[in-house]
Automatic annotation (TrEMBL):
Cellular localisation: Endomembrane system
Predominant subcellular localization, coarse grouping: membrane
Organism this protein belongs to: Xanthobacter agilis
UniProt family annotation: Belongs to the CmpA/NrtA family.
Cited Pfam families: NMT1_2
Superkingdom as given in the UniProt entry: Bacteria
Stored SUPFAM superfamilies: Periplasmic binding protein-like II
Alphabetical keyword list: Cell inner membrane, Cell membrane, Membrane, Transport
Name recorded for this polypeptide: NitT/TauT family transport system substrate-binding protein
Length: 400
C-alpha cells in the first residue's frame, strides 16, 4: 500500500510536523509566550474551539441554547477548526480558551509540552467505533492490512491496539512495504478523510469518533465491527480542557463555564433528536457539515440498530447498556490512571519518553481539576441525574 497516496485533506504533512513540534516543551514555548500576552485580557469571553464531530456536542449545545449567557457570561460563536493541530495551536496560544480534546492528548499537553492547562470535565463517554470494509468479519481479518486512527494520542489508538493484541496481531507503523500477516499497519488520518479512504480500499478500516462511523454506514461503504464503549465501559473520549490562568485567576468565571457545560449535557440526554438537529448542517448555526439523519443515527438510534449490532457482534456486552454516545461530566480518577498505564504500552510515533516518568495516580491529580464539575453536579442532581451511582469512584471495566 502507498502511504504517501493516502488522502490528507485537513491533516496534511505540514499539520503532522506542526503537531510533532508541539510535542516538546521547546516547540510549545513560542505559543505559550503568545498566550502570556493574551492573559492580560481579564474579561475575555468564552471562546470555544472545536472539531465538527459529536465529541463537541456539550460545548455547542451550551452555545446554541444560550447557557453561557444564562450564567452571566459573554460567549463568542464557537470556532470550527479542521485538525487537532489547529485546536492545540489555537488553545496553547490563547486564541480560544475552552476546547474539547482527546483525553490522551491532554496527558501529552500537560506533561509532554508543559502546557499550563487542566481537564475540568468529561465532554462525553463512548461515541466512537471501529469501522471496517464489508468483507472484514473479525478483528483477526485485519492482519496484513492498514487501519487509520485519528491521532497517536487518542483513546482510539489505545483501544484498537488492545483489540489487535487480544486477537494475536501486532500493531506496526510502516511507511513503506506491506505488513506481515500477523501485523496491522496503523496510520494517522483526519476523520473526514477516513470514509473516502475506506471506500477506495486504501485502508481496511478506521477507528474514530462519530459521526464518521455512521457516515460509512449511510454510504454503504463500511460496517461497524466494534464500538469502543463496548470494549472500555463508559470511557471518556474527549474532555473539556481549560487554561490554568482562568481556573486560578478567574474561578467564578470558570465555574460558570463548567455549570453551562454540565447543564448542556443534561439537556442533550433529554433532547437527543433536537441535539442532532442543532448540530447538523440543517440546523440554525450549521455547527457541522453533517446531515441530521446521520447525526440521528448516533444520538437517537432506532432500537433496530441495537438489535443488529448485537447480532453482528459489534455489541458483545449488552448488560453494560451502553449508548452509542452518552454524556457524563465527572472525570473519574481511575480512568485517567488506567489511561496513563495503557499509554505506556501503546505504540506511539514521536518522542513519548515523558510517559515513562509518569506515575498514574500523581498524573491524574495534576492533570484534572474537578472542583468546578463537582460544584456543578451538586447543583444539578449529582451523578444520578446522568444515570450513574452517586459516587466519585469506580472500577474500570475493559473486556474486549
Amino acid at each position: 500500500m502507498c502511504i504517501a497516496c493516502l488522502p490528507r485533506g485537513g491533516f496534511s504533512r505540514r499539520e503532522m510536523l506542526k503537531l510533532s513540534a508541539l510535542f516538546t516543551a521547546a516547540g510549545a514555548l513560542p505559543l505559550l509566550r503568545a498566550a502570556e500576552a493574551r492573559a492580560q485580557e481579564p474579561d475575555a469571553p468564552v471562546r470555544i474551539g472545536y472539531l465538527p464531530i459529536t465529541d463537541a456536542t456539550p460545548l455547542l449545545v451550551a452555545h446554541a441554547n444560550g447557557l453561557f449567557e444564562a450564567e452571566g457570561l459573554k460567549a463568542e460563536k464557537p470556532v470550527l477548526l479542521r485538525s487537532w493541530a489547529q485546536v492545540i495551536e489555537a488553545f496553547i496560544s490563547g486564541q480560544v480558551n475552552v476546547i474539547h480534546l482527546l483525553s490522551p492528548m491532554t496527558v501529552w499537553a500537560r506533561f509532554g509540552s508543559g502546557a499550563p492547562a487542566r481537564v475540568v470535565a468529561w465532554n462525553h463517554v463512548s461515541g466512537s467505533a471501529l469501522t471496517v470494509s464489508p468483507d472484514i468479519s473479525s478483528v483477526a481479518d485485519l492482519g496484513g492490512k492498514t487501519v487509520a486512527v485519528p491521532f497517536w494520542y487518542s483513546i482510539h489508538n489505545v483501544v484498537v491496539q488492545n483489540l489487535l493484541r487480544e486477537n494475536g496481531l501486532t500493531p506496526v507503523t510502516k511507511k513503506t512495504g506491506t505488513p506481515a500477516a500477523n501485523e496491522v499497519n496503523l496510520v494517522v488520518m483526519a476523520p473526514a478523510d477516513m470514509p473516502p479512504a475506506l471506500a477506495t480500499r486504501q485502508v481496511a478500516g478506521y477507528i474514530v469518533a462519530e459521526p464518521f462511523n455512521a457516515v460509512a454506514e449511510a454510504q454503504g461503504i463500511g460496517k461497524i465491527l466494534r464500538f469502543t464503549g463496548d470494549v472500555w465501559k463508559d470511557h471518556a473520549c474527549c474532555v473539556v480542557f481549560m487554561h490554568e490562568r482562568d481556573l486560578d485567576g478567574r474561578p467564578e468565571w470558570s465555574q460558570k463555564v463548567v455549570n453551562a457545560i454540565v447543564k448542556a449535557q443534561l439537556w442533550t440526554r433529554a433532547n437527543r433528536a433536537e441535539t442532532a438537529r442543532l448540530l447538523s448542517k440543517e440546523g440554525p448555526n450549521r455547527y457541522t457539515p453533517h446531515a441530521q439523519a446521520v447525526l440521528d443515527k448516533v444520538l437517537s438510534p432506532p432500537e433496530a440498530d441495537t438489535e443488529a449490532y448485537l447480532k453482528s457482534g459489534a455489541i458483545r456486552h449488552a448488560d453494560w447498556k451502553e449508548k452509542r454516545i452518552d454524556f457524563q461530566p465527572y472525570p473519574f480518577p481511575s480512568y485517567t490512571e488506567e489511561l496513563v498505564r495503557r499509554l505506556k504500552g501503546t505504540l506511539i510515533e514521536g518522542d513519548g519518553a515523558f510517559l515513562a516518568k509518569l506515575d498514574p495516580a500523581t498524573a491524574a491529580k495534576e492533570l484534572v481539576d474537578d472542583r468546578f464539575v463537582k460544584a456543578a453536579l451538586a447543583a444539578n442532581g449529582g451523578l444520578p441525574a446522568f444515570g450513574f451511582p452517586d459516587t466519585f469512584t469506580r472500577t474500570e471495566v475493559i473486556a474486549p
